[in-house]
Amino acid sequence: MGKIIAMANQKGGVGKTTTSINLAAGLAYLKKKVLLVDLDPQSNTTQGIGARNNIKKSTYDLLLKNADVKDCILHLDIPPMDLIGATIDLAGSDLEMANYQNGREQLLKKQLDKIKADYDFIIIDCPPSLGMLNTNALTAADSVIIPVQCEYYALEGLTQLLSTIRLVQKMYNPHLYIEGVVLTMYDARTKLSIEVQQEVRKYFKERVYKSYIPRNVRLSEAPSYGKSIFEHDIKSDGARAYAALAKEVINKNN
């Protein structure tokens, strides 16, 4: 049975999409069967993996048109994993879901449960908000990975996310837990990065991954080429960091 992990932080610009793409790719290159689900209306994950023009049925169709989940899956050769991509149609989904009387929080769970056994890991890239899409992701997920950037106000807003997680645990998904916290945009030369790392580790303790993601130009460039960091520059610090994170995630789940 696979593991469903939601990549969540309602704050934008924390490296959530970068981590979704590169963790999924890292797991796939380590011979794990991986499905990446883009639940963000901006569809940055779909674009960043180079699949924007190949999407026939999207997460919108999956959630609100009751499309067959297998018809929504795109098989990628590079990286060797599967994708359910997003389109701009998803932007109005919160309003559409508001019309549902029952079960709107379970829409994604019902679909992913059909294919969960086919994968080792299903990674959901959540939107930078706390609406119905995020609730669907957290209801479907077994666990949450929270990317936290090493900058001022890093922990700001996390209280709100943790409250949402607790609410979902209470109402829809009692087994949901925090898989881990990954530090992003880390710069060992700055006092700020070191201080933020210490603060986050003090707050989340052993749930913070040992691997952290450095500030890296090659990482920033990769999405514009529609590639994961492993295709763009396998020798970069960013590739090494995500390879280490993928190994850590696998070891935690063995």
Give the helix level as a range of percent.
40-55%
Mean pLDDT: 94
**How would you spell out the order of helices and strands?**
EHEHHHEEHHEHEHEHHHH
Task: Tell me the fraction of residues in β-strands, as a range.
Answer: 5-15%
Bulk shape: globular
Beta strand count: 7
What does this 3D model show about the protein?
The chain is of the alpha/beta class. Helices cover 41% and strands 14% of the residues. The chain contains twelve helices and seven strands. The protein has helices spanning 16-29, 44-48, 59-64, 69-72, 93-97, 107-113, 132-140, 158-171, 191-204, 217-221, 229-232, 237-252; strands spanning 3-7, 34-38, 74-75, 82-84, 121-125, 143-149, 177-184. It has a seven-stranded mixed sheet, with helices on both faces. Strand 6 (143-149), helix 8 (158-171) and strand 7 (177-184) form a beta-alpha-beta unit. Helix 1 crosses helix 12 (237-252) and helix 6 runs parallel beside helix 7 (132-140). The mean pLDDT is 94.
How would you summarize this macromolecular structure in one to three sentences?
The protein is of the alpha/beta class. 41% of the residues lie in helices and 14% in strands.
Task: Chart the SSEs and their pairings.
Blueprint: E1 3-7, H1 16-29, E2 34-38, H2 44-48, H3 59-64, H4 69-72, E3 74-75, E4 82-84, H5 93-97, H6 107-113, E5 121-125, H7 132-140, E6 143-149, H8 158-171, E7 177-184, H9 191-204, H10 217-221, H11 229-232, H12 237-252
Parallel strand pairs: 1-5, 1-6, 2-4, 2-5, 6-7
Antiparallel strand pairs: 3-4
